[in-house]
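Input (structure):
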């Protein structure tokens, strides 16, 4: 049992993913553990290449064939690693569903949006009549905020704007009211106003269907308004994990502090640009430095420690863990809660 939170819905334990290649093994994901409770929103944050999409692909059973997986993924009491493909196929869409990162190209251009939503419903439920299916598709388009669904349902994807296509994809992925929705960077390609609307739609759906939401993003600002808990990933491992308030106010890992410093300031004149960038680059999985993988970019790294010993995840507060030699425990408040 790890010190990661216990998830009644999902419990990922010691998840590792290795790709075999001619040049040797690539340990893309290393010992990732976290849990999700029913109805919870979890933000998964990290720079490009940190392992966010691989984590979601492992949960969905959609890793490429050359990936070697170990650890455990328990979902609704069932072990998914090693489960039959037919069992996973049955869970996908019905119990868990992903809005994938390349969502804007995921719609089929030769079928109408309505036909694709209807197909998403029919995969798991072929009983409804054509009339019922169409009504359900209209209700879904309405739920995701498409204006005048009856005049839009027979449109082709190219007749939709980027934001509307994203809404249509969300409609498809929530068509069967899954217990877990994974949204992999659902707002990256959209402008700031539409981003906010899409996040609103996800929150509304979650409230209505009581589903759990795993929101993957490179932007800590996005998780601030949506997530209950946050997992911060760096170079294929978890760097920090905490309730959202603790993550922002009791930040324990220098990498998380760096991500926070990258956020555009509310009082900045141009909010599209931030003043800070974490120096350097995340190492590739085949070329990680000794010691802490973050030490070459860390402004507080201690020579002789951080460049030598790989830190373990340590508990710094209730439900708050960080993989840093220098992380200090924050003290409980007088009322018993962590401050
Ligand atoms: N099929 C593969 N073969 C080899 N390495 C892979 C494969 N897929 C992913 N990786 C490696 O695994 C690491 C994590 O990739 P992943 O796609 O999970 O990153 P991510 O955090 O989702 O990044 P982004 O924000 O760019 O989407 C990367 O270093 C990537 O190069
Ligand atoms: Mg990704």
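Output (sequence):
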């Amino acid at each position: 049992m790890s010190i990661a939170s216990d998830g009644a819905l999902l419990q990922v334990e010691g998840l590792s993913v290795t790709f075999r290649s001619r040049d040797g093994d690539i340990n893309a994901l290393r010992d990732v553990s976290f849990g999700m409770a029913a109805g919870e929103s979890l933000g998964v944050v990290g720079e490009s290449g940190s392992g966010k999409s691989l984590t979601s692909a492992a949960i969905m059973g959609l890793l490429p064939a050359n990936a070697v997986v170990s650890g455990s993924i328990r979902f609704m009491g069932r072990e998914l690693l090693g489960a039959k493909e037919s069992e996973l196929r049955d869970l996908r869409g019905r119990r868990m569903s992903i809005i994938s990162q390349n969502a804007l190209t995921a719609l089929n251009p030769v079928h109408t949006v309505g036909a694709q939503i209807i197909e998403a419903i029919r995969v798991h439920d072929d009983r409804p009549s054509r009339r019922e299916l169409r009504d359900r598709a209209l209700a879904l388009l309405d739920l995701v905020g498409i204006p005048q669904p009856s005049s839009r349902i027979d449109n082709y994807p190219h007749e939709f704007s980027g934001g509307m296509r994203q809404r249509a994809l969300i409609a498809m992925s929530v068509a069967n009211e899954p217990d877990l929705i994974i949204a992999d960077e659902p707002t990256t390609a959209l402008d700031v106003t539409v981003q906010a609307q899409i996040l609103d739609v996800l929150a509304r759906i979650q409230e209505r269907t009581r589903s759990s939401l795993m929101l993957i993003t490179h932007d800590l600002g996005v998780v601030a308004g949506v997530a209950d808990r946050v997992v911060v990933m760096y170079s294929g491992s978890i760097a920090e994990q905490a309730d959202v308030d603790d993550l922002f106010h009791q930040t324990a890992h220098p990498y998380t502090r760096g991500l926070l410093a990258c956020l555009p300031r509310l009082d900045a004149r141009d909010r599209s640009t931030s003043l800070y960038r974490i120096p350097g680059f995340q190492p590739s999985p085949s070329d990680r430095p000794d010691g802490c993988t973050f030490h070459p970019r860390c402004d507080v790294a201690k020579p002789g420690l951080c460049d030598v010993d790989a830190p373990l995840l340590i508990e710094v507060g209730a439900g708050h863990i960080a993989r840093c030699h220098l992380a200090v425990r924050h003290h409980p408040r007088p009322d018993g809660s962590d401050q």
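Notes: Residues 192-209 form the longest helix (18 residues). The CA atoms of residues 18 and 27 lie 4 Å apart.
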